[in-house]
Amino acid sequence: MSMFNAATTFCKRLNVKELVTSAPVYGNLADGSAGGLSLMFRRWATKRTAGSTKNGRDSKPKNLGVKKFGGERVIPGNIIVRQRGTRFHPGDYVGMGKDHTLYALKEGRVKFETHKLSGRKWVHVEPKDGHVLHPVYASCSTPQLETAT
What is the model's pLDDT at position 22? Predict the structure, then answer.
């Protein structure tokens, strides 16, 4: 019976308050090696570490699209269409930049044209003064067709 009594006192439940009050207070680690009930208290973080997020990245706008519509007046150098690839193809008096930007080479009005069969879209500038030949071609004499007699 005394054995049972000893076991009950040995296995007696202790609450945290009793453990903390009965534990000796040590100034440093060397004092703790003297014996007795030693408890290790660990501080837990009050805030979790920040995880990574998949948001927060965005590219700046490229401002693509038609800048001058059909019938609008343009001067040389005006950008008509900003595009990726050749969605619109350069026509008369229209140049194309290295990023496929279409721009006016002469003063005039913008005209869009679509090919009926292929669906290819062309952008032209109708010159203000009408159709004028380039000086290189104007200096050449145009060959006259001779009719057979």
Answer: 62
44-99 residue pLDDT tens: 777 777 777 888 889 999 999 999 999 999 999 999 999 999 999 999 999 999 99
Closest CA to 110 of 70, 83, 57: 70
Helix (H) or strand (E) holding 135: helix 135-139
53, burial (CB in 10 Å: exposed 0-12, middle 13-18, buried 19+):
exposed
Write down how long the chain is.
149
Q: What is the pLDDT of residue 40?
A: 73
SS3 130: coil
* 116 close to 122: Cβ distance less than 8 angstroms: no
To the question of pTM greater than 0.70 for the whole model, the response is no
In three-state secondary structure terms, 96 is strand
DSSP annotation string for 6-69? HHHHHT----HHHHHHHSPP-SSHHHHTT-S------PPPSSPPPPP-S-S--PPP---EESS-
Pick the residue with more confidence: 128 or 117?
Answer: 117
> What percent helix, strand, coil does the chain show, rounded to 5?
15, 20, 60
